[in-house]
Write a structure and sequence with these properties.
- The chain is an alpha+beta fold.
- It has a single domain (2-178), classed as Alpha-D-Glucose-1,6-Bisphosphate, Chain A, domain 4, CATH 3.30.530.
- It has helices at residues 13-19, 23-29, 123-149, 160-178; strands at 2-9, 33-40, 43-52, 55-70, 74-83, 86-98, 104-115.
- A 7-stranded antiparallel sheet has the order 1-7-6-5-4-3-2.
- A hairpin with a 2-residue loop joins strand 3 and strand 4.
Length: 184
């Protein structure tokens, strides 16, 4: 299953990049993420609550390996996840570009395999749910960006390691959302 799209954030690329360094922001924007632990410099393991349509389950374990990291422009990843309702595995990439009017264009593409009960809900349901959930998550991140642009206290600086942990969490959540996740 190929899922791709784009979203324009209403703020500069550097701020979007820095916002993605804040795991608390991502946790608010992408509910269902329970844990994310760095197990190596470029490897993370986590757990999420996952469900799509009538199919629900408990924890969905996920392993993410980050690749091709070029701050603040792009990165890609290998994602493997499994749980009581099935599995997903594949690759995903994200690119941030400056957009007109001071915005930031985010382009994403995921090439995923989905199996188990979660695949049984049908392609139409998965496609519709993934689009809606991805949009909701990205809009939540953009709202936080707008809050910061209009005078909220600046976020504390994060280390590079925390950035990649946060970015991995965001993309794990995005990848799971792309194949059906808990956001409704």
């Amino acid at each position: 299953m190929i899922v791709e799209g784009e979203f324009t954030f209403q703020g500069p690329r550097e701020m979007v990049w820095n916002l993605l360094q804040d795991p608390e922001v991502l946790a608010k924007a992408l509910p269902g993420a329970k844990t994310l632990t760095q197990t190596a410099e470029d490897r993370f393991e986590g757990a999420m609550q996952v469900g799509v349509g009538p199919v629900t389950a408990g924890a969905f374990s996920v392993t993410v390996v980050l690749k091709d990291q070029v701050a603040p422009e792009r990165f890609s990843m290998q994602v493997d996840g499994k749980g009581g309702i099935g599995f997903t595995r594949g690759t995903a990439s994200v690119e941030l570009r400056a957009a007109e009017g001071g915005g930031t264009l985010m382009k994403y593409r995921a090439d995923l395999q989905i199996g188990g009960k979660i695949a049984g809900v049908g392609q139409r349901v998965l496609d519709s749910a993934s689009r809606a959930m991805t949009k909701q998550g990205l809009e939540a991140v953009n709202r936080e960006l707008q809050s910061r642009l209009t005078g909220a206290a600046p976020a504390p600086a994060r280390s590079r390691t925390r950035y990649w942990a946060a970015a991995a969490l965001a993309l794990v959540a995005l990848t799971i959302a792309l194949c059906g996740g808990p956001w409704q």
